[in-house]
Design goal:
With 268 residues, this protein is mainly alpha-helical. It has one domain. 74% of the residues lie in helices and 0% in strands. The two termini are 20 Å apart.
Length: 268
């Protein structure tokens, strides 16, 4: 790879010619997926195991034990858990990508942004191929597939991917100098999980607290995923906070990588 991907230029984060950049991004993404699931026979099962297992636990604890009345509770949970785990896994995996590939970063000159983007694209691939399972599970719970899903899933997919790319590049870059980012992110993601209406309806949150939850860019995103799957609604203007936050995240990630990329090899 060193002979085909070495890139001249002042900054490690500078862009390669379009064709070689995308070829390299695809190659690294496929490499990461092969390494991640090398020797496993149930990789597809593991992609759906976590949201499905957590959904079953919450369904039992909230619906059967605490008797919380939510219409079609199983579909309510699953329609939010699948996109949530995509976000969580993608961001968590991207955090350590520069540190884990320190040998490559030190020896080969290539666009550093390739590494976090490849991790995010890998998690996106995992999410996309689990969507048929989600559709099947929703059908089992009584939700009939709707043709609007085919149109609605594209903007939601693109928006969450943009959010993940921006945040993934940002946390990966900061983690080069601040190794507390990784452990701290676990706590932040746990807090975000409870501050996002995943296992409770947003309309049941008291007005004062609801305004706080709406500051979370994942709130409108998860709500729109759920509305699309459960009711066939197309994504609407309620997504504007997520769009704004995604643009800011992409800009912040690019800026952080541009600054940190100058001395990344030395810091690693």
């Amino acid at each position: 790879m060193a002979t085909t991907t070495a890139m001249p230029g002042r900054f490690a984060a500078s862009a390669a010619p379009a064709s070689s950049f995308w070829d390299l991004l695809l190659a690294v993404t496929l490499r990461d997926l092969r390494v991640k699931y090398h020797g496993t026979f149930l990789s597809y099962f593991w992609w759906i195991a976590r949201p499905l297992t957590l959904g079953l636990v919450m369904y039992f604890a909230l619906g059967r034990v605490l008797k919380i009345d939510i219409e079609n509770h199983a579909a309510f949970l699953l329609s939010a858990l699948f996109p949530w785990f995509w976000f969580q896994n993608g961001l968590h995996s991207a955090t350590n990508c520069f540190v884990a590939n320190s040998g490559l970063v030190k020896k080969v000159q290539f666009p550093r942004i390739i590494l976090p983007l490849s991790v995010v694209l890998g998690s996106t691939f995992e999410f996309v191929i689990t969507l048929p399972v989600l559709v099947l599970l929703l059908f089992i719970t009584g939700i009939n597939p709707d043709w609007t899903w085919l149109a609605g899933v594209l903007p939601l997919l693109a928006l969450e991917l943009a959010l993940l790319c921006g945040l993934g590049v940002l946390v990966a870059s900061l983690n080069v100098y601040f190794r507390d980012i990784g452990p701290g992110l676990d706590s932040v993601l746990l807090l975000l999980f409870y501050l996002t209406p995943i296992f409770y309806p947003l309309e049941r949150v008291p007005d004062g607290y609801r305004q706080v939850l709406l500051l979370n860019p994942l709130t409108p995103l998860i709500e729109e995923w759920r509305e699309m799957f459960l009711f066939g609604d197309m994504p609407g203007l309620d997504l504007w906070p997520t769009v704004v936050f995604s643009v800011v995240a992409v800009a912040a990630g690019w800026f952080a990588l541009r600054i940190i990329g100058k001395n990344m090899a030395d810091a690693l």
